[in-house]
Design a protein that fits this description.
Strand content: under 5%
Strand order of the largest sheet: 1-2
Order of helices and strands: HHHEHHHEHHHHHHHHH
Number of strands: 2
Number of helices: 15
Helix content: 55-70%
Shape: globular
Radius of gyration: 19 Å
Length: 357
């Protein structure tokens, strides 16, 4: 293993270990870290949806923002930029959240679930790869959301400021903020441990640039395995940590925590996540890190995730342990159609401009 690959593996391994430790400290099963689920909980806490069992300002998200923002400012990576198809990014962010909540997890949680033997995550991984492969076909044909441009520093500070606001609300707990009394939202590690873990993870993710969608994209598109080592690190260390700390893993489809075994919609939900991850240039956790280092386009995507999570619970789109819902299934198909149509239109327009020139 090359030195750079080893660094990626170790960085991913630390993320995997923290995921297991956060479950041990109180986070929901197989959900030590789930970016889509955590943003969903924050959306509930802010009153964007009223599903009482998933409302909590997750300190891990605040930690991701603070860690990534701080280290990017120190290293000079913090650059305010944006202006690259913001409206379309918002819409795709909405559908990314819906796809993840139909599956019940972001790509990172998918890997953590695999590391505890949840074979439903294997079905999700297959769908995720299919979505990435489809997205790559558009990249090969010139798909792009356009170049971002330098923006005012105020734009770059939007996500760090949002993180500060969330921390204040978490500490003060005003009456207009909602906190679950039962269910996944009420199941969490101690706040300061979660915040500390998030800060460390944010630093690692910013420096390594680990992204599940990007890792698989690079393997398929340019035969580069650099980022894949980070993903393998997450999986391997999660698996070993579960075996050592929890005494074993639960291999199978049934009786998995906060998961369902409806294979078709596990597959298609993650197909939508994989497709949007390629079209947007990163999975949910990568978008969170990019937004924290000044990328206004990624911040727009994150706000799309928040709204998508709210839609998922306001309109009964999110799955549960009992399976997917008819509304969620329809929304997933709509998301795939809308994102594919947008990508086709962009590619067609690029080809037309190329022909005319």
């Amino acid at each position: 293993m090359k030195k750079e690959s080893l660094k990626m593996f170790v960085g991913g391994g630390i993320i995997g270990l923290m995921g297991v430790l956060l479950v041990t400290l109180g986070n929901p099963g197989n959900m030590g870290i789930c970016v889509a689920c955590f943003w969903r909980d924050i959306a509930g806490a802010l009153g964007l949806h009223r599903a009482e069992v998933v409302q909590y300002i997750r300190p891990e998200i605040i930690g991701f923002i603070f860690g990534a923002a701080a280290i990017s400012m120190i290293t000079g990576d913090f650059k305010a930029r944006g202006g690259s198809s913001p409206a379309l990014r918002f819409v795709m962010g909405v559908f990314m959240a819906i796809g993840a909540l139909v599956f019940l997890g972001c790509p990172l949680r998918m890997i953590l679930r695999l590391g505890n033997g949840d074979l439903n995550a294997l079905v999700g991984l297959a769908g995720f790869i299919v979505g990435i492969v489809v997205g790559i076909q558009f990249l090969k044909r010139g798909y792009t959301l356009g170049k971002s441009v330098k923006e005012s520093k105020v734009v770059g500070l939007v996500m760090p400021a949002f993180g500060v606001m969330l921390l204040v609300l978490l500490l003060v707990k005003p009456e207009f903020i909602f906190f679950s009394q039962e269910g996944p939202g009420a199941t969490h590690a101690p706040m300061y441990w979660s915040l500390a873990a998030g800060i460390v993870a944010g630093i690692i993710l910013q420096r390594t640039r680990i992204c599940s969608a990007g890792a698989i994209r690079d393997v398929i598109l340019i035969k580069n395995f650099h980022f894949l080592w980070g993903i393998l690190g997450i999986f391997v260390v999660t698996l070993i940590s579960n075996l050592v700390l929890n005494g074993g893993i639960n291999i199978g489809f049934a009786d998995q925590p906060i998961a369902h075994d409806n294979h078709l919609w596990n597959f298609l939900g993650m197909t939508l996540v994989g497709l949007t991850g390629i079209l947007l240039g990163g999975c949910p956790i990568r978008q969170t890190i990019l937004a924290s280092e000044g990328d206004g386009d990624a911040a727009i995507t994150i706000f799309g995730l928040l709204v998508g999570a709210a839609f998922a619970h306001n309109f009964n789109l999110a799955s549960s342990g009992k399976g997917s819902t008819p509304n969620g299934e329809i929304a997933t198909i709509i998301g795939l159609v809308v994102c594919l149509a947008a990508a086709f239109w962009i590619v067609s327009r690029k080809n037309k401009e190329r022909t005319e020139s």
